[in-house]
Task: structure prediction
Amino acid sequence: MPIGLALLVSADPVTIQQFSRALQELSILSDVCQEVPAAVGLLNRQKFDAVIVDLQIGEQSGMVLEEARLSPANRTAVTFAISGSDAEAIAFRKKSGFVFERPLSTQSIHKTLKPAYGLILRERRRYFRCPLSVPVVILRRGQPEVRCNSVNVSEGGMALNTLTPLHPEEKVQVQFTLPGLDAPFKPELTICWWKAGQVGVRFVALSQEQESALQGWLSRKLEEMLPEFVAGKFRRTEVCSPATNQDRDLRKEVRCPYCVGAYTFFPMQVLSNGRLICEKCGHIVFPDDTAFRCPCTKCIEIAFSARIHKYE
Result:
């Protein structure tokens, strides 16, 4: 099962073959368009995690990138350009940190895709609906509680099985516990739709701790879906404690402040715009910032800060 979907816009058969193979090796399915109108149509009809545009298709390449930026479904998709000249690369880097420069090779494509992979996974997580069957209690003001089971959960809401009629826009509260987590969730929700036997709800009030815990849980479930041949490309064997990490030469490798809860050392790479991107979680940070609060569930209650040093 593919972990993500990318739109590849190029008219060059060799480029299409190279990128289709490279994306497949990362468990990303590619939808290829050789003409701009077809690509624009797809952006208006379908959700993509990444959009890759070959600038050799001409001035209309900018139309594809602009359409992706304006599209309600794809405005947060990770965008890439395949440049044919230094001038094109410089122009696009002002908009994004990801540019493939010709001549292309398997190694050069992977070198750019790898640091962007965390962002693609994070984009996938935003609408990832994880199958989940756990007991849920629906609390309604002035009415008996409703006991049911969940169908799936996402960052934005849940689907539930219940024969009790519920009305769209009705405000309710639910109680449930995610597998592997001790603290129960008690978010406020709005009913989105109800069909016989099933109801869709949208989260409207989640605490920072619960939002972080839900995102972390969904991220782990999404990573569990990664094929082993993909996960092995990103797995790190070096493990250290925060105290040990403080003694490292941070000019060469920087510990991601959003991954410190796992106490695993994930190097960050430098993008062309001077920002740093974590290979693990996809967070982008500024090298000028000096302190971060890790939002993961293991660090949420302690004041842990990570020092980010400028690269020399």
About this structure: Helices lie at 13-24, 36-45, 61-70, 86-93, 106-127, 208-224, 228-234, 242-245. The radius of gyration is 22 Å.
